[in-house]
Design a protein that fits this description.
elongated; Rossmann fold; single chain; five-stranded parallel sheet; about 20% strand; five-stranded mixed barrel; alpha/beta; about 50% helix; OB fold (Dihydrolipoamide Acetyltransferase, E2P)
Length: about 450
């Protein structure tokens, strides 16, 4: 060291060289993307995530600040293959660089999203999403097919919700994988099975619980979409993701965000129906009572109206007149019969006094003829009187002042007098308009 020649120029310090490196990296590596596998995930007490993203030949330290993690709502765990976005930063105290992460996506999601958009555009152009092909959901289904995993939570949610809302329904579960390579063929097979039954179900629910885009991908397969479109049974897509849509959601006749919501769409709440029926029954009872009361008051007003009382008096007068005529007719008939009998008795006395058999027989025949004629005349007179009475009753019905009102006409009265002609109408007098169901007074201006 004694013989070492000192440098003839300034040597930078560690801080200075680190600052140059920091400036160089942070200026040139902003908003970068990197793909790799997450390892050594550690969440601090402050909520920050520290981890490493690596591949076979290198690794990169990363950090996600707590505020960023809360905003993204992502779960970071070892072994995930991800695409990270952010900035490179040099941490001078440790002499190391790290990536400040602001974006986390599942690796491959871009390719799947592109494939999703291409298939969506293709099927939409073919008209598979058109509302004109949508079938109506039956309002009260009793047989409901369910296509999902027999071991998943989705069918349990559907079954328990039906038991609460619509216990009259019978569920028919057809197991199908809802994730993995075999999922799409099994879903197509289940849909076609339900569609080929001689006694098909009323409604079909197809779906699963939530998951990543890769997990839900079988419901974005073209074969599944076309099977749903060709299914003759109304279908509800119940893939458990509330924000994003699957191809099955667009093709199905109805879309539910979750399996539980599919039940809400598929069937009414039986308790709400019970309340509705009770309300309708109560409303009908109230309306009927109001109608009965209204007609009762109408009949009472009609029975006590002046016009009806006048008609009743006229009918009573005519009835008394008819009774008097009948009494007079009966009296005349009795007198005529009595006179005829007296005459017959006189004839009998004459016959008996002369006692000729021929004369007696002749007078007997004459008496029979006269009796028959008398009875015929009596019946004819009685029939004529009854006809006259019915005619009088018909005339009374025709002059009933209430009859035009019952046919929808009105009647104008001034000072209690029926105005039958325009020349009798007084413009300055108070006018009353009478209908069949009431009247109104109009004061002159």
């Amino acid at each position: 060291m004694k013989n070492q020649i000192p440098f003839s120029f300034d040597v930078p310090t560690v801080s200075e060289i680190t600052e140059k490196i920091k400036g160089l990296l942070e200026r040139n590596f902003r908003d970068i993307l990197v793909e790799g596998e997450i390892s050594n995930v550690n969440q601090s007490r402050n909520g920050h995530y520290y981890f490493t993203v690596k591949d076979d030949d290198a690794q990169l330290p990363c950090v996600i600040w707590r505020s960023t993690a809360q905003r993204m709502e992502v779960e970071i765990r070892d072994g995930q293959q991800v695409v990270l976005g952010g900035d490179l930063q040099v941490y001078a105290p440790h002499g190391r660089y790290q990536m400040i992460v602001s974006l986390v996506q599942q690796a491959g999601i871009g390719k799947l999203q592109q494939k999703f958009e291409q298939l969506k555009k293709k099927l939409e152009e073919e008209g598979l999403f058109s509302d004109s092909y949508k079938k109506s959901i039956p309002p009260f289904p009793t047989k409901i097919g369910v296509i999902t995993s027999a071991t998943g939570a989705a069918f349990h949610d559907i079954k328990s919700t039906f038991e609460q809302r619509w216990p009259v329904a019978t569920l028919y579960l057809h197991h199908a994988s809802v994730q993995g390579l075999n999922a799409a063929p099994e879903l197509v097979k289940a849909i076609e099975w339900f569609g080929s039954q001689k006694k098909p179900v009323d409604l079909l629910i197809i779906g699963r619980g939530g998951g990543s885009l890769e997990d839900l991908w079988p419901f974005n397969e073209e074969t599944v979409a076309r099977a749903v479109f060709n299914c003759p049974i109304p279908t509800i897509s119940a893939v458990g993701h509330e924000v994003d849509f699957s191809i099955t959601d667009f093709v199905a006749d109805a879309r539910a965000a979750t399996p539980t919501q599919a039940v809400v769409i598929a069937a009414p709440d039986i308790n709400e129906l019970r309340y509705m029926v009770d309300d309708y029954a109560s409303d009908m009872e109230t309306i009927l009572q109001q109608k009965i009361q209204t007609y009762r008051e109408y009949v009472y007003r009609l029975a006590n109206s002046h016009a009806l009382l006048v008609v009743q008096e006229k009918l009573k007068f005519q009835k008394n007149r008819v009774d008097a005529l009948l009494e007079r007719m009966n009296s005349r008939m009795d007198r005529a019969i009595s006179e005829r009998r007296s005459h017959i008795q006189q004839l009998n006395s004459t016959v008996e006094s002369s006692n000729p058999k021929v004369v007696l027989q002749k007078w007997g025949e004459s008496v029979a003829v006269l009796s028959e004629r008398l009875e015929n005349r009596y019946e004819r007179m009685l029939s004529d009187k009854k006809s006259a009475l019915n005619k009088q009753l018909s005339l009374l019905a025709e002059v009933n002042p209430k009859a035009p009102l019952e046919r929808g006409f009105t009647r104008i009265l001034q000072d209690g007098v029926w105005i039958r002609s325009s020349k009798h109408f007084k413009k300055s007098a108070e006018t009353e308009i009478e209908w069949n169901d009431g009247s109104a007074k109009i004061k002159s201006v």
